[in-house]
Amino acid sequence: MADFISPEDFRDKLDRGEHFYLIDTRMKKDFDEWHINGAINFPYSKENSLEAYEMKKLRASEGISLEDQIVTVCAKGITSASFAEKLKHKGFSDVKTIKGGLRAWSGLYDHVQIATEKDDLIIVQLQRRAKGCLGYIVGSRRSGEAAVVDPSRYTKEFIDAATERGLKITHVFDTHIHADHVSGGREMAERLGINYYLGSDLEKRNPEFDYISVKSNQVIDVGGLQIKAIHTPGHTTEMTSWLVESEALISGDSLFVDSIGRTELEFEDDAERGAVLQYRSLLEKVLSLPDRIKILPGHFSVSDSGESGGVKPGTPIFSTIGYLRRNNRALQMEKDEFVDYMFENVPDKPPNYERVIGINLGREERGSEEEEIELELGPNRCAASEESMVGSSE
Ligand SMILES: [Fe+2]
Predict the structure, then answer these.
(1) Does residue 22 lie in a domain region?
(2) Rounded to whole angstroms, how far apart are CA atoms 376 and 254?
(3) In angstroms, what is the span from residue 327 Cα to ligand 1's centroid?
(4) In the structure, how many helices (H) and strands (E) does the chain have?
(5) Is 235 part of a structural domain of the chain?
(6) 62 shares its domain with 131
(7) How far is the CA of 351 from the centre of ligand 1 (A)?
């Protein structure tokens, strides 16, 4: 029997900075598309015997000794477990396999509390570290009511995060129709019998589900907390940032801590319009807010090689309007320069984005658990550039 390590324990090992070798046994093509930061690729299949010379080559090139700690991983944790067994037979003393493989790793969450000025306000950031997706619980200590913003299909994570803090979820919000992951908004609204809120411009995209349409500047009361809609189109037509109590702006994919949202996924045929909309939303609306307002983004960037640029998952990921005003280069550009920048910094499209948008608009049926795991594997690719534009957040 192979020894397994849970995705949670593996995360803690990474965060402690322990020394170990992570060997990913998938095919090179899959490895190149996306892998955990620092992994070594050693393609392996159960049908093949592990030739001594191959192992020797790997040990020599990576400097691995028989006493070193080794963790193996593959898509589901099956092939990598059989590889781990082989390694043990070859004399390696400390070999573990990530239980459930990259699929389980992709669904792992950190629940991180964000410090707030107002005593009554609780904000929890749910970080899906493998993909770089962020969702939020916004709750009131006094009333015990909470809203969820941008829940993923891992709805239990969000419900647990609220329950652990004595909060009851009474509202669900999405910032926009996501292209990189299946939204849990509708599912959560149905499961809990509560309303689902989206920006009113979504009507232009003909969604096929019920929701409460919120106009820009409209305020929704969540257990005594004021959540105000600020329409920030550009990333998508309906993109709406939610201003929580004049303290934090949940900015979705309009503004990140190290970058800004891409605009050409929806505005493919009219990419210039998307870029101009994004410029107006960020420069004329978001930057008109006071400097102390926190920016709570919808994503942080994760590269194909698993690096999370400029942020540390497991710790709060946010910035402030003031910091970004001074340090985010895109926010200092004139309109023409900004539009050119948007065209010059187009990353690869997220895998399967058309299918994901189809599901999130309610036009296509949700897939099986198996299919949705496959759809979402890989990083989010929501930013205009994968290069970090500021060194760090404050
Ligand atoms: Fe997005």
Answers:
(1) yes
(2) 21
(3) 23
(4) 12, 18
(5) yes
(6) no
(7) 13
Q: Report how far ligand 1's centroid is from the alpha carbon of 290 (Å).
A: 25
Structure tokens at 277: 């909309």
What's the predicted TM-score (pTM) here?
0.92
Q: Is the pLDDT of residue 173 over 50?
A: yes
* Owner of token pair 């940032």: 241
pLDDT tens digits for range 266-321: 888 788 899 999 999 999 999 999 999 999 999 998 888 888 877 899 999 999 99
Share of the chain above pLDDT 90, in %: 75
pLDDT score of 392 more than 50: no
CATH number, residue 63? 3.40.250.10
Residues 286 and 202 in one domain: yes
* Alpha carbon of 393 to ligand 1 centroid (Å): 21
Which amino acid type is present at position 283?
A: L
Which residue type sits at 243? Answer: L
Q: β-pairing, 94-98 with 145-149?
A: unpaired
Rounded distance from Cα 10 to ligand 1 centre (Å): 28
Indicate whether 283 belongs to any domain. Answer: yes
Same-domain check for residues 92 and 119: no
pLDDT greater than 60 at residue 394: no
Specify the pLDDT at position 55: 79
Ligand 1: centre distance to CA 235 (Å): 7
